[in-house]
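User: Second chain of the day. Same drill as before.
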Amino acid sequence: CEEEGFDHQFPMPEVPPPDDLPSELALRRQFAHLIPEKVREKLTRDRAIEIRPLQVINPFAPQRLEPSKQNWFRAVAKLPDERVWHHCVLAYASDFGLLGTSLHPHATTYYSRGMQVTSLDHAVWFHRDFRADEWLLYSMDSPSATHGRGFNRGLIFDRGGRLVASSTQEALIRRRV
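Assistant: Same format as last time:
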């Protein structure tokens, strides 16, 4: 049951619209020859979620970056109107890229040699109605990494700028010795 009450939110960042950006999959396919053969097929196959990153990085040659990033995403196929489908798809998609945000300042990715990386916990809060088969902006940051852990959080906005969901994730991020 929805209740009337106080209403405020952080503003959506000003970013280019998704129509102006290439998809992550298109970029991977364009540079497939640079992807190690053992993961090439996995990284270039069709997916149920389309992602359009605002900042393109090479995960096999990472550079030191600020602990933040933004992606547009949506389900590739039209979803039923029932709210539960949209919540499930957003919860699933909210795991894409969030953990890696805490690796940016360390010029490291999942694919860096000797890394042990996994999600320890992940939570999502739904604030307003939305459609997961329409473009959503995922603005992610990592305010802290210490003692082999990276803390990540995300804000998810619809194209109209409404904050529709928030997420957090703690990750194990350590170099294996």
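The CA atoms of residues 51 and 96 lie 9 Å apart.

User: Great, on to the next one.
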